[in-house]
Design a protein that fits this description.
Elements: H1 10-15, H2 24-40, H3 50-59, E1 104-105, E2 111-116, H4 121-127, H5 132-143, E3 156-161, E4 167-173, E5 180-187, E6 190-195, E7 205-206, E8 218-220, E9 223-226, E10 233-236, E11 238-242, E12 248-250, E13 255-262, E14 268-275, E15 278-288, E16 295-296, E17 301-305, E18 315-322, E19 325-327, E20 335-336, H6 342-356
Antiparallel strand pairs: 1-2, 2-3, 3-4, 4-5, 5-6, 7-20, 8-11, 9-10, 11-18, 12-17, 13-14, 13-16, 14-15, 15-17, 15-18, 18-19
Length: 363
């Protein structure tokens, strides 16, 4: 039987379809068509907004709508319960953080700053509205009474500022300890912080000695001597300091003037009580510039050098008495409670009450 195309009937050869002979070109075309159909069957990639892209990148996966074919693997668990309906959650706005409270201020008057010390007193003061200068003033005021490093996280601070933004009051409510109520007090051109809470109970203080009441040499010492006027030996209860006429005489230490006026052989004399039974005496003054009952500070002028009373020339007779008995002024060392100025204590408490009313709402 003849099967070769060349032996086929001429008519059959003429109607046979003209199929191309299979080869490498034909196979390539078929492969290209199949791959195109397969690619078209995949879902088209959707470009996500930039914010969504960053969120998906942070998770390390890609959404299916963006061409991803895998997600995070999740193990099946009985704790997950299927639901038939998921309600739409209502939008709940997030409250914006509130700024630090501004200092309470009265129109045209002082201002007040309060808060909790927290982890750092200085930065808590700054966060509450205190300037760096005011915060430094507050810390310096506290340092006159306590170690600032001992302030606890739960302690509460309270400041009152004047119109010039200068600190007038420094308060500290300490947990488990007595509160501090420091009032700024100015007198005789000098400012100091007074704890109003303890104004009537001052602490014990120590001093290395007395201030010499006048500038000049010691011309006569404590003890027995031959008196230049009376011409016999007798006990000299103090020391004499030679100084020019009209030279200033100052208080040897803080205290209250117990007497000021004429005192016989002492001439014009001033006596100052320093507490603890200690009294200092200044004699032979030409002029007295203080009065009985007033309070004086160490170094404050109380009179001027003269030669009043039983005296041979201008000088200061300086005595110190302990419980009424004279002692050597050059050997005195103080270790006693300072004198309490009751008038000052009352004035400080009145000032404190005024300052604590700053920022208080009145009905």
């Amino acid at each position: 039987m003849l099967t070769s195309p060349s032996h086929a009937h001429p008519l059959r050869r003429s109607i046979a379809p003209a199929w191309p002979k299979p080869g490498w070109k034909t196979a390539g075309v078929l492969a290209l068509l199949c791959s195109t159909v397969a690619w078209a069957s995949f879902p088209s990639a959707v470009v996500s907004p930039d914010d969504d892209q960053r969120q998906w990148q942070a998770l390390g996966v890609a959404p299916l709508s963006n061409g991803g074919v895998t997600g995070m693997e999740m193990a099946p668990t009985d704790a997950a319960q299927p639901i038939t309906f998921a309600p739409k959650r209502a939008f709940v706005p997030v409250a914006a953080p509130q700024p630090a409270a501004a200092p309470i201020a009265l129109l045209g008057g002082p201002s007040r700053i309060r808060g909790v010390a927290g982890d750092g007193l200085y930065w808590s003061l700054r966060a509450a509205g205190a300037s760096p200068e005011v915060a430094a003033q507050y810390l310096a005021a506290l340092a006159t009474e306590i170690d600032v490093g001992d302030v606890g996280a739960g302690d509460r601070f309270d400041l009152v500022l004047g119109n010039d933004h200068q600190l007038l009051y420094a308060g500290l409510d300490r947990v488990g300890q007595s509160a501090l109520q420091l009032v700024k007090w100015s007198t005789n051109g000098r400012s100091e912080w007074i704890d109003a809470a303890n104004a009537e109970r001052p602490p014990q203080t120590e001093s290395s000695g007395l201030i010499m009441p006048a500038q000049g040499p010691v011309t006569s010492y404590f003890g027995y001597r031959y008196h230049p006027i009376l011409h016999f030996t007798r006990f000299h209860a103090g020391i004499d300091i030679g100084a020019g006429w009209g030279s200033p005489i100052v208080a040897a230490a803080d205290g209250q003037v117990a007497a000021a006026g004429w005192a016989g052989g002492y001439g014009r004399e001033v006596q100052i009580a320093h507490g603890g039974g200690i009294v200092s005496l200044y004699g032979h003054m030409s002029e007295i510039v203080t009065s009985a009952g007033s309070y004086v500070h160490a170094g404050q002028v109380i009179g001027y050098v003269g030669s009043s009373g039983l005296s041979t020339g201008p000088h200061v007779h300086f005595e110190v008495r302990m419980n009424g008995a004279p002692v050597n002024p050059l050997a005195v060392r103080f270790n006693s409670a300072p004198v309490v100025d009751t008038h000052l204590a009352a004035a400080v408490k009145a000032r404190l009450q005024t300052l604590l009313n700053v920022g208080v709402k009145r009905s």
